[in-house]
Amino acid sequence: STTISMLPHSKTRRFAWTIDDGVSSSAVGKYLDIAERGDNHLTLFVTSCYDSWRNHSKQISRLLKAGKIQLGNHTVTHKDLTTVSEAVIKKELYGCHKFLLEEFGYDARPYFRPPYGSTNPAVRSVAAELGYTVQTRWYGSFGDAQSFDEERILQFANKWIANGRIVIDHSNRMKSEHLLNQIQEVVKARGLHSVTLTEAFGK
Prior knowledge:
The chain is an alpha/beta fold. It has helices at 25-37, 52-55, 57-66, 86-104, 121-129, 150-160, 177-189, 197-201, and strands at residues 2-4, 14-21, 42-46, 69-73, 111-112, 134-136, 140-141, 166-170, 193-194.
């Protein structure tokens, strides 16, 4: 297995905007709209216990077909995988894998993101046995998992959005339209476009 936090070198200025979890159905819907209406290609790491993914099933399927989004495995219930047995690690990863296949006909392998970024050799080994050989970390975070101060989130977006980076965002609370527009302006001002991991690394 391998671990990534940066994109491979490219002559094109690009970064990976990755969005985790899915607690808020309205937030998931807003990110899907950003992908559908603009030039932002997003990678969504799915925690499959949340209803938001089923609520937006038709739009997700449409965007997958159009190549505007990619889905990754973020387990079923967002357990810290370093604190559980190998059997539970397998149950969490395989359960999400099975959900993505059944709901969208989509195989998310090889990309997975361990909840909280917590990992160890057992996590990587079990994941690899299931075909999840690319552990996806991040170079920078919008900080919205710890705080939901929108001014602070924008500061982190300004700090971390840059060429070649994988950045992490969350769809757990609804961000204002104003904030989401400001983040997209940062991307535009830096001459970047967001790509899915598969677009960056190839199949």
